[in-house]
Fold this protein.
Amino acid sequence: MAKLNMVQAVNLALRQEMKKDKRMVILGEDVGRNGGVFRVTEGILEEFGEERVIDTPLSELGIIGTSIGLAVNGMHPVAEIQFSGFLYAPFDQIISHAARIRTRSRGRFTCPMVIRSPYGGGIRALELHCESQEAILAHTPGIKVVIPSGPYDAKGLLISAIRDPDPVVFLEPMRVYRAIKEEVPEKEYTIPLGKANIVKEGTDLTVISWGAMLKYTREALEKTNYSAEIIDLRSIKPLDTETIINSVKKTGRCLIVHEAPRTCGFAAEIIAQINEKAFLHMEAPVVRVTGFDVPFPLYKLENYYIPDEKRILKGVEKVMKF
């Protein structure tokens, strides 16, 4: 079994699904000849041709609008938005159209499309290149939001997203695109959307994270003597509330780590679910370690914004010593 990074795992998933499903097309800026800005789609144009791997004009509205039209008419488009900050432009298409097609048509039409995008910070990129919009997207009925944390999950989740009958936004944490290698089977496999992964079982506290932050949260927790149960959400929407609630009922304490801004970040929804369904089992208030309520900073300030080992460990002590 080969050890792959996330770029290679996503590429493998796309190739296998392109072979399996003749209705699938890939479209986006530079996805063909250049293989994408991170080379995620490298080599796919040569294998499947220009009719199925389409270099588009620099227009996110056009990419998403075209993908919606393709999906409604029986195709299975996988659209790449070059960086997550560029998702703001086509939000109108995503929210007003892709997310509503099933409801608007009373089930006559579905919109089986995937929107892939590099997501989050940590690579010293430019403004609007490091956004974390999972909470905004999750607030929108009709779309699913998936964030893998490693290569194995990336392949299985992406195949499930491509086969889903409804629109899925698939956010790929570019900070760990090449920072993690895992054994990834050559044969196809799927990981169901909406099912969290208990990465490590524990008894003292529940720690919840996703995307790139999972790697750094796990590394920080190795510096403690506490028995932490670590949960990788994998899927922001649908949310695996059952796994979260069962875990916090067992441990009585919870820490949530995410990169997005604090106010109305997705941790707030998780805390609300815990308060509604496990409040009497809690030994301490849930603690959040998050980004700050400012635009994502550039260059030298980037590492002050993203939760680091020091802030994560401080959060652990806060929840444990309440």
